[in-house]
Amino acid sequence: MSTQDQARALANRHQHVAKNREQSALSRIAAEIGVSSETAVRNQPRSAGMS
Questions:
Q1: b vs e for 12-40, b when ≥16 Cβ sit within 10 Å of the residue's Cβ?
Q2: How many Å separate Cα 31 from the centre of its chain?
Q3: Residue 19 CA, distance from chain mean position
Q4: DSSP of 1-51, one letter per residue?
Q5: pTM of the model
Q6: Which of 9, 19, 14, 17 is nearest to 50 (CA)?
Q7: pLDDT classification of 11: cutoffs 50, 70, 90
Q8: What is the distance between the alpha carbons of residues 49 and 37, in angstroms, rounded to a whole number?
């Protein structure tokens, strides 16, 4: 695997981990205020650079 491929894989992994962390935090906050986590995640604004 080339250095560029390794960098791309690392960036993709980082993005995936960050997105999962955001969704987990959003679900916890939604539970605290009584909103379903599905509704909260569905209505989450997209972050720049995230898909």
A1: eeeeeeeeeeeeeebbeebeeeeeeeeeb
A2: 18
A3: 1
A4: --HHHHHHHHHHHHHHHHHHHHHHHHHHHHHHHT--HHHHHHTPPPPTT--
A5: 0.63
A6: 19
A7: very high
A8: 23
Residues whose CB falls within 8 Å of the CB of residue 31, separated by 6 or more in sequence, listed in order: 37
Single-letter code of the amino acid located at 9: A
Interval 28-45: pLDDT, tens = 998 899 987 677 667 666
Residue whose token pair is 């995230």: 50
Give ∠ CA 35-31-26 in degrees, rounded to 5.
90
Task: Please give the structure tokens belonging to residue 11.
Answer: 């960036």
